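Risk register update: the risk of archive-format incompatibility is retired. Evidence:
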Amino acid sequence: MTGLDEGVLAAIAPLEEGYVDVLARLVEEVTDDQRVRALWLGGSVGRGTADVGSDLDLLVTVTDASAFAAASAWDVLDPVITIPIPGLAGCFAFTTREGLRVDVVLEGPDDVASSAYTHRVRVLDRDGFEPPAPLEPATGPDVERMQAIVTEFLRQSAIFPAAVVERGDWLLGQEAVHHYRRMLYDLLSESNQPLPTMGIKQWSSRLTPQQSELLAGLPAPTADRDSVVGAMTAVRDALREHGRAALESVGGTWPYDADASLAAYWQRHGL
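Archived output:
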């Protein structure tokens, strides 16, 4: 017996094996601790979008956060790696001895009603808290963000010919190709908004099958001239074709003049 109700077990069922035992140990630890007023599942589990690659995000409602300021307060999780969460005192990202990932975020009883963590599953609730209802999702793509990505792509087009090719820095060239691929990914995924809220590690879920195929087909360079130049040319062409189409499909404006100027610059470098 785990001491967890069926709704909680169903919520964490998609996770990797072992999280049930971790959560059950924690619940047993805090059940008699009256300073802990509530325990919730947040993150992708709280949203109902978790899968086998998701971690366990825990929201803990406590009367005295200072009593839980030290990471040792959560030794029941058996962590081997502990990282304080920046900007959140007493909150930690743990990696357990079994390789499981558990994030613990503290809140006070007065914080629950106005919390930004609106998607949550009750595990323990002594006081009948009422978290705020989830916000409506964004209505569409952030065109301003997409325009900024395109501007940065073109700005960096003035860097590659001299900083990579003329210097012969093919390790830098490998990183530049990966960075351009990320810009293309960001353009395509943003053009698909609104998307269901999901964790940052749910990568391919933000793309259409055709977009996934496009990105998967781009070459990954080795650290030599022909490979880097070929891979950069391929991802640059994809940005200028598919990235442009994505931007224009949501009402953005492709900077044709800047694009033409940078294309001429590449030609002067024999690219």
